[in-house]
Design brief:
By secondary structure, the chain is α/β, with parallel strands linked by helices. The protein is built from 7 helices and 12 strands. The strands form 3 sheets. It has a 5-stranded mixed β-sheet with strand order 1-2-3-5-4, covered by helices on one side. Strands 6-7-9-8 form a 4-stranded mixed β-sheet. A 3-stranded mixed β-sheet has the order 10-12-11, covered by helices on one side. Strand 8 and strand 9 form a beta hairpin. Helix 4 crosses helix 5 and helix 5 packs across helix 7.
């Protein structure tokens, strides 16, 4: 389930792709590179069954433009370049939201809620959890505290997300064949992914920060890809049967920032 295409808002270098020109980038994905705000930003370009050109900066800072089939590549490129300053501003805002500090916020997000975080200064980094859910981290710096909290969050994700996936998979009553055991890892640009050939599903560890109903949606979304490739009408019909109201859940997920873990 992609959230990003061409490395989000990250500075982009490519030996055959000039700024402002469309070309093949990152395994065949069409991209347009714009220069604004002192950096180069890759914009994922995609042909879709839409009426108008649609430009969007996602929560993680990645940029996507969808274009009708009838619109020429030059028109798409010119449209994107005309929005260069707007893109740079929105990407900077998204990246700022995505790089918030757990230590500074005083909270560790978890399944739509959060655990209180208490930070103490100390020579060695240590993390403890109280019965009431409060997480206390002792560390020599804020950066060290955030690294420790990130490790704790990932550990929680690896424990919780496979169980939530199993629950969602059980709801399908064997529709997708033998049960799949997902792997959990930190991904910069996707909430999840599915390799149909290998029957391998990956879940982003950062899903553990999302509400349970959104986690369930991603699990069912990836399971649906075992039967249907891509995101066409057949896929959405299947997903609607599995998860009514899935489009609203996707919008909620899109509003969440994919954080950059230290």
């Amino acid at each position: 389930m992609p959230l990003a295409g061409c490395k989000g808002g990250a500075p982009t270098q490519h030996p055959t792709l000039e700024t402002g020109r469309a070309g093949v980038y990152n395994g065949g994905m069409k991209c347009i590179v714009v220069r604004a705000g002192g950096r180069e930003i890759a914009v994922e370009a995609e042909r879709k069954r839409v009426r108008n050109l649609n430009l969007r900066v996602r929560a993680d800072g990645s940029v996507h433009v969808s274009a009708p089939v009838r619109v020429s590549e030059k028109e798409v490129r010119d449209f994107v370049l005309s929005k260069a300053e707007w893109i740079a501003t929105r990407v900077a805002e998204a990246e700022k939201r995505a790089s918030l500090s757990f230590a500074e916020e005083g909270a560790l997000p978890f399944l739509g809620g959060s655990f209180p975080v208490v930070v103490k200064e100390g020579a060695r980094t240590r993390v403890s959890e109280a019965a009431d859910g409060t997480v206390t981290v002792t560390a020599p710096s804020r950066e060290a505290a955030d690294r420790a909290l990130s490790r704790l969050l990932i550990a929680k994700a690896k424990k919780v997300l496979p169980a939530m996936f199993a629950e969602a998979q059980a709801e399908t009553n064997g529709m997708f064949g033998a049960p799949v055991i997902p792997s959990v890892r930190v991904m910069r640009s996707r909430w999840g992914s599915c390799d149909r050939t290998k029957r391998a599903i990956k879940l982003n560890a950062l899903l553990v920060t999302a509400p349970p109903e959104c986690v369930r949606y991603v699990c069912l979304h990836e399971l649906a890809h075992l039967k249907v490739r891509g995101h066409g009408a057949d896929f959405h019909s299947l997903l609607e049967n599995l998860c009514p109201g899935h489009r609203a859940l996707k919008r909620r997920l899109d509003a969440l920032a994919l954080r950059r873990l230290p």
